[in-house]
């Protein structure tokens, strides 16, 4: 049997408002660990470091943080998980999203994975969701 979080047995998740389903799994692309996010027919890729880096940032933040999900083409609201996921001040010095044109939505798709892994708490309201480290 495959381990959870593999292509054969991906994590089955829902966006924070519990309105849309998607899958994520770990993989290796060009020798680098990545998190693959499959939303319908769209596939997004995130740097595999994002899980540990986001968890550490949330622990340092030590409070609830707005998610703020936004597409790559839109500006992210300052002080949100989304803004941090593309900031020059994060550990990778920019975007955790790896697929040009589809690098955004970090604040939408990563928080439920962090919750499933037991690393964070996420609110599940219709809008303006937040997360904090466990």
Total helices: the number is 3
- Uncertain stretches: none
- Helix % is 10-25%
**Beta fraction:** 25-35%
Major β-sheet strand ordering: 1-2-3-4
Envelope shape? globular
Sheet with the most strands, sense and barrel status: 4 strands, antiparallel
Radius of gyration from the CA trace? Answer: 14 Å
User: What is the element string, with H for helices and E for strands?
Assistant: EEEEHEHHEE
| Through-space gap between termini | 29 Å
Strands, count: 7
Average residue pLDDT: 95
Helix-and-strand structural type: alpha+beta
Fold and architecture overview:
This protein is of the alpha+beta class. 20% of the residues lie in helices and 27% in strands. The protein is built from three helices and seven strands, in the order E-E-E-E-H-E-H-H-E-E. The strands form two sheets. Strands 1-2-3-4 form a four-stranded antiparallel sheet, with helices on one face. Strand 2 (21-29) and strand 3 (32-39) form a beta hairpin. The longest helix has 12 residues, at 50-61. The chain starts with 10 loop residues before the first strand and ends with a strand. 34% of the residues are buried. The model has no long low-confidence stretch (mean pLDDT 95).
Features:
single chain, 134 residues, 4-stranded antiparallel β-sheet, 3 helices, globular
Task: Produce the secondary structure layout.
Layout: E1 11-14, E2 21-29, E3 32-39, E4 42-47, H1 50-61, E5 65-66, H2 81-84, H3 106-116, E6 120-122, E7 130-133
């Amino acid at each position: 049997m495959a381990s959870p979080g593999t292509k054969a047995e991906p994590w089955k998740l829902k966006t924070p408002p519990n309105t849309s389903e998607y899958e994520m799994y770990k993989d290796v692309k060009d020798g680098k660990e990545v998190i693959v996010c499959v939303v319908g027919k769209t596939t997004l890729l995130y740097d595999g470091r994002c899980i540990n880096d986001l968890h550490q940032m949330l622990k340092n933040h030590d409070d609830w943080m707005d998610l703020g999900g936004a597409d790559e083409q839109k500006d992210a609201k300052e002080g949100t998980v989304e803004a941090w996921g593309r900031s020059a001040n994060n550990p990778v010095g920019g975007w955790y999203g790896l697929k040009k044109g589809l690098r955004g939505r970090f604040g939408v798709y990563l928080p439920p994975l962090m919750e499933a892994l037991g690393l964070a708490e996420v609110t599940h309201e219709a809008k303006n969701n937040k997360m904090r480290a466990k």
